[in-house]
Structure formats: C-alpha cells, structure tokens
Design a protein that fits this description.
Blueprint: H1 9-16, E1 22-28, H2 38-49, E2 53-60, H3 64-75, E3 82-86, H4 97-101, E4 107-108, H5 110-124, E5 134-138, E6 141-146, H6 150-172
Helix pairs in contact: 1-6, 2-6, 5-6
Length: about 180
C-alpha cells in the first residue's frame, strides 16, 4: 500500500512508525528499594498508558560499573527497543549516570535536555538548570536518562518521551 505524501516528513514518519515498544527501565539508587521506586512506577505507568511495555525493570546502585553492565545486558536483548533510566543525573558525587552513558552514545539528542529544562522552569524555577537529563541512541536504540524526581519523570514522559518515542524508534531503526 502506498501512502499519499503530505509534504510533512515528521507526520509521514509518525504514520509509518510502530506505535508500541518494549522498554528496559533502570533505576539508579543506593537508598531506594523496589517498593520505594516511585519514579520507576511513574515511568512504567506512563509507558503502559502510551501502549508500550516494560520488558525489563532493574534497580541498581549508583555505580558506573553497575550501569554499564546493566546497559550492555539489556541492549543485547532482542525484545528491548529503548531504555529509560531514572536517577543519578544530579550534581552529587554519587550521580554518575550522565558520565557513564554519554561516552556510550552513538548520537546525542541535545535538544532533549533543553526542552526538559524549558518545560521544568515553570515548576522548578532556576533550579531546573541543575537538570542533566540526557537522551540519545546506543546501537540504534533510544535511551532517555531522567532525574530521580517523580515529578520530573512524569513531566519528561508526558511531554517528551511518550509523544516522540515511535518517531525516534522509526528514525533510529531500532529493533
């Protein structure tokens, strides 16, 4: 079946993109238990409401080695199309998500953090500049590194990740 061109490549990509993805969800925390992972719960709820599934959910300590290992493990899986992390994006010495993930990226979506900060400003004020949210692709799979704040996760998922995930999967050629 041939689609009629609308002249808008983004809309054409969205029409052609699959609308469901299996996502690996990784929470970084040295203090939370699985029962206390409210940000992970918000991300899962948002994914499911958007028609996606959580193929893997892990809670790991704030550790570069643990995060690298977890990412390598989930990226080897055929049933994972994207990865979302929560936690470890702040300024504390234990916050290592950005330093661990950025060197692993094939491509970085620099606009993700800019949009996230812009959307965060009305609620967080100048403190939003402390966000080091990060997004990009690793081996053709999108990865979104979100703060550990439940409110920040909800905002990022509702306004950025869920609306654009199918389009990003299509462009990146994710499995």
């Amino acid at each position: 079946m041939t689609r009629k061109a609308t002249g808008n490549p983004v809309e054409e990509h969205r029409k052609q993109a699959r609308q469901r993805a299996a996502v690996a969800l990784i929470t970084l925390s040295t203090t939370r238990t699985a029962a206390q992972d409210k940000s992970g719960d918000v991300i899962r709820e948002q994914l499911e409401a958007g028609g996606h599934t959580v193929a893997v959910r892990r809670l790991i300590p704030d550790s570069r080695a643990a995060l690298r290992s977890a990412l390598r493990s989930v990226l080897r899986r055929d049933d994972v199309s994207a990865v979302i992390t929560t936690g470890g994006t702040g300024l504390a010495a234990s916050d290592v998500t950005v330093e661990t993930v950025r060197p692993m990226l094939d491509k970085e979506l620099t606009g993700f953090n800019a949009l996230f900060m812009q959307l965060s400003y009305p609620e967080a004020g100048a403190a939003c500049m402390l966000s080091r949210a990060l997004a990009g692709t690793i081996k053709g799979r999108p990865i979104f590194c979100l703060p550990g704040s439940t409110r920040a996760c909800r905002l990022a998922m509702e306004k950025l990740v869920i609306p654009e995930l199918p389009h990003i999967l299509f462009i990146a050629g994710a499995p």
